[in-house]
Amino acid sequence: MSFKDRPASDQVSKHNIPYGATSLESDNRHPSALYMLFFTEMWERFSYYGMRALLTLYLISEISKGGLGWTSAEAGQLYGIYTGLVYVTPLIGGYLADRYLGFRSAVIIGGLLMAIGHGALAIESMPFFYSGLGLLIIGNGLFKPNISSMVGQLYPEGSKLKDSAYTIFYMGINLGAFLGSLICGWLGEAIGWHYGFGAAGIGMVLGLTQFYIGRNKLGKIGLKPEPKDPSVDAKPAEPLTKVERDRLKVILSLSFFSILFWLAFEQAGSSMNIFAYKYTDRTIDFLNFEVPATWFQSINAFFIFTLAPIFSMLWVKLTKKNINPAGPYKFAIGLLLLSLGFAVLVVGSLSIPKGAEAAGVSMLWLVFAYLLHTMGELCLSPVGLSFVNKLSPVRLIGVMFGVWFLASAIGNYIGGALAGMIDQMAQTQSMSTFFLIFVGIAAVSSIILFLLSGRLVKLMHGVK
């Protein structure tokens, strides 16, 4: 999974709290509603990442094997459009929930649309296939931002439990991503693609059902907002101060570099998925078992589980020694690690002959690449979310998070288009040359950002 799925910030939800919402924290214990939201999100991410693990492989698989027989270029284009729109629609869904629907209704409607969308994908029909993707995009827009917002509203302002609540919630995201890739991936590859899509739909139904049953645990949180008097808070917008303008420049700069990061990182679901499917020896001889290509999609979530606590402790220790790198430098380090991950794939694919349509490269190259990519993600994504929150003027927080997620959408779209070049370059040049593109993009971006970081830190005006 990706760390960019982490709930953005409790401050984003603060000005989205519907009229009458109250926190549910008591006696320094997490409310039962947190665990209800945990499992809702876990099953939704199960469905999303289970479907994502299958999408590209289903598109390029031969018709005789139940796939659509598309070229990698066609598959990459569709994958980029789909994943890009997934990060655009939450901007609309958050607005609709805040103004008209309320968070609960938005989550229920979004979950229902996604369940129907997965069901449509389970039917072997192109009209149903495209309709299913459309329903998933719209449903995600209503579901994703609003369930995250309700987590922050479970706790009063300044609660010491809020950070740990988001950590628990985030573990649900990773658990769902891990299990979805394994279960839906195996069903799709071993039994039939549409069985995998159907399993993703079952996961979404389970999440939606338990949310609907347990929604009353939320108290007044997430109810439909009451109409507001337009004359209230109708104050003219104050002009931005120089400090605010400088900090916004930092957000825009980091958002630009995040585009370059995500267009490479998101090769995981497209070109790296194809590399696992066509060019990797996935056989474990002593078990007489072939690892499904989709299972490699779960490696990122596994490394997030294991590495996130280590990185968290590392930043704390470096802070105590007053040597914790500033945010822009961490961004640059993340891009560098991403570049090194693709460098591993460049070396690993050197043995693949030019023009080969299949090969047997060791699985370890992919595992090592995912390890470096996850380390890069942990340096960049949580830092970016935190800095958008800290650097944005309160009245512009929602807008700037919109900019941040729009950057993710652009990165996903461009990344999908680039992923479609994998087979063409494998035929005309080499597989190594293809991965070298991402080595270059990430490395050059890292160097430029390292050079700019000192200036960006000054523009932050003391924000750490």
What does this structure look like?
This protein has about 475 residues and is mostly helical. It folds into two domains: about 1-225, Growth Hormone, Chain: A, CATH 1.20.1250.20; about 240-464, Up-down Bundle (Growth Hormone, Chain: A), CATH 1.20.1250. Helix content is about 70%, strand content about 0%. The chain has helices spanning about 10-15, 30-60, 70-85, 90-100, 105-120, 125-155, 160-190, 195-215, 240-265, 270-280, 300-320, 325-350, 365-390, 395-420, 420-430, 430-460, and strands at about 280, 285, 290, 360. A two-stranded parallel sheet has the order 1-4. The chain has a two-stranded antiparallel sheet with strand order 2-3.
Task: From the structure above, extract its key features.
464 residues, mainly alpha, Growth Hormone, Chain: A, two-stranded parallel sheet, two-stranded antiparallel ribbon, 16 helices
Show the helix and strand layout.
Blueprint: H1 10-14, H2 32-60, H3 72-86, H4 89-101, H5 103-121, H6 126-153, H7 162-191, H8 193-214, H9 242-265, H10 271-279, E1 280-281, E2 283-284, E3 289-290, H11 299-320, H12 327-348, E4 361-362, H13 363-391, H14 397-419, H15 422-428, H16 431-459
Helix pairs in contact: 2-3, 2-7, 2-8, 3-6, 3-14, 4-5, 4-6, 5-6, 5-8, 7-8, 7-11, 9-12, 9-13, 9-14, 9-16, 11-13, 12-13, 12-16, 13-14, 15-16
